[in-house]
Amino acid sequence: MLSSTCKTAIKAVIYLASKFESGENAGIKEIAEFIDASEHTIGKLMQTLVKQGVVNSVKGPSGGFYISKEQRKQPIINIVEAIDGKQLFKECGLGLSKCSASRPCPIHHDYKEARDKVEKLFSTRKIADLCEPVNDGLAYLIG
Asked: What is the pTM of this model?
């Protein structure tokens, strides 16, 4: 359902949120190394996330990316919509353009139910909710 780029963006934002208490900014290289992603991908993602207001950036020698206290309260769906778009939770599971309740694909009803649950999860879980288990060593951002 989520693109690999979107999954990488979520991990990058969680990493920034986990650094909030220390007040440190993180550079592209640091983020990429921590979540095991390419610097090129992280650079593009971070630009998009800054434009969408999900995270902030500061230029200069002590610059980098950071997340504010208010931004930590954002639902995860803001990241998903910034990267994969708002249509993600409306699309057909088989990619059909005319799939609907009145003209369903073979997996329409089951997929819609699963898709709605994932949308609810991403709408209700906040960025801060996901960084706390990482900080406590109970969850990880790399496999």
From this structure: 0.91
